[in-house]
Design a protein that fits this description.
381 residues, 33% helix
């Protein structure tokens, strides 16, 4: 038989104990459900971030590290003010008297570069129209040379591939096939500080370009390469009616006699090439081409063309800006992007583990304390 005290305790217990258990259980179930959802979301996001970090320097890089197919650019190289070039006056070849050399001539080398067919996922065809002009003469009177050069290159390595290149030097003559090797319009992606082979459009052959130094240009890391051509016999590599010329001694300026003297056309040059190494983009360049007639290549006798030409400041800034954009995209997929992905993935996975630990502790029923045990014992009396 229950006493009044026990009955009241039972009623009190039923109100405050038994009646609250379903509500507590429901709240715990909702909490655990939310914890599990958070764990799944964090684990999924973390795994996704790590997968992206792994793919960026492999799959994504391979898709980005290719020469673009929308190249359409004009570059201009000039002689510096007060340091004009030397040019053989072609009118004196057929006129009376010896050959004449014009000095202190302002010169402009202009190149117009476009992408033509065949170009696809693996190769790109460059077409370059180039002119060299005297800036002190107008129209055709100032035109020294003009050419259209085509070469198909691998979009990743920059090396020439099939079909063979071609060169057209006169309007009324078709382009001639001109196979070649060596880099020409760009360096490979991830350029290294080593020696490369570069193609020389004047000599129609290739020469070594040696690494010189690493420097910065507008805050951008740049590799400087130098290619040196010395006493190249153009008659052995090119096709031109002036590769070997026979004229009277008086015409060569060698006295008054009419004795025929034959001279060959020789070529020397020092080319400085500046490359943004991540993208392989050419950002600046200068060269000192020197063509001359001589019987002995070590003893130049008549200058054909001699100058010091450098890409102008406008072109340099444009090339640097373009190279910076390309390098930033590649650096994101090779270093910054993966680091960010690993960091986000790691934080999310740690968060998922932490959520699981917290959830397991909240789900565990609390152990009865001594005070609770004493209350339960008194209530049962």
């Amino acid at each position: 038989m229950l006493t009044g005290h026990n009955a009241e305790a039972d009623i009190h217990g039923s109100r405050h104990g038994t009646m609250r258990r379903p509500e507590t259980k429901r709240i715990g179930t909702v909490f655990m459900s939310r914890v599990r959802i958070a764990m799944c979301l964090l684990a999924g996001l973390g795994s996704f971030a790590i997968v992206v970090a792994l793919l960026l320097p492999t799959l994504v890089y391979d898709r980005l590290a290719v020469t673009p197919l929308d190249i359409d650019a004009t570059t201009v190289a000039t002689t510096t003010d007060g340091a004009g070039g030397e040019v053989l006056d072609s009118t004196t070849i057929t006129g009376p008297g010896p050959l004449s050399i014009a000095t202190d001539v302002p010169l402009v080398l202009q190149r117009y570069i476009t992408v033509e067919d065949p170009s696809d996922a693996d190769r790109v065809t460059f077409q370059v129209g180039a002119t060299v002009r005297r800036a002190d003469r107008d129209g055709d009177a100032g035109l020294l040379t003009a050419s259209v050069d085509r070469v198909t290159s691998d979009r990743r390595t920059g090396l020439p591939v099939e079909p063979a290149g071609s060169l057209q030097t006169t309007v009324d003559s078709p382009a001639i096939p001109l196979p070649r090797n060596g880099l020409q319009h760009r360096f490979p992606f991830d350029t290294q500080p080593i020696t490369y082979t570069v193609y020389d459009a004047t000599a129609w052959t290739s020469f070594e370009a040696n690494f010189v130094e690493e420097l910065t240009m507008e805050g951008l890391p740049i590799y400087h390469f130098r290619s040196i051509v010395t006493e190249a016999d153009l008659s052995t590599t090119t096709q031109s009616p002036i590769n070997s010329v026979t004229l009277p001694a008086s015409k060569w300026g060698l006295g008054d006699g009419d004795e025929p003297i034959t001279m060959k056309r020789w070529y020397s040059n020092v080319r400085d090439i500046y490359v943004e190494p991540t993208s392989g983009s050419l950002v600046w360049g200068q060269e000192t081409p020197y063509q001359y007639f001589a019987r002995d290549p070590k003893v130049p006798e008549v200058t054909i063309f001699k100058a010091s030409l450098a890409l102008d400041e406008t072109g340099r800034l444009e090339q640097v800006a373009s190279a910076r954009d390309a390098a930033n995209k590649l650096e994101w997929v090779t270093s910054r992007g993966p680091l960010l992905g690993y960091a986000v993935g790691g934080v999310c996975l740690v968060g998922a583990v932490a959520a699981g630990v917290i959830g397991s502790r909240r789900a565990r029923p609390p152990e009865p304390t001594r005070r609770h045990a004493e209350k339960a014992e008194r209530a049962s009396v």
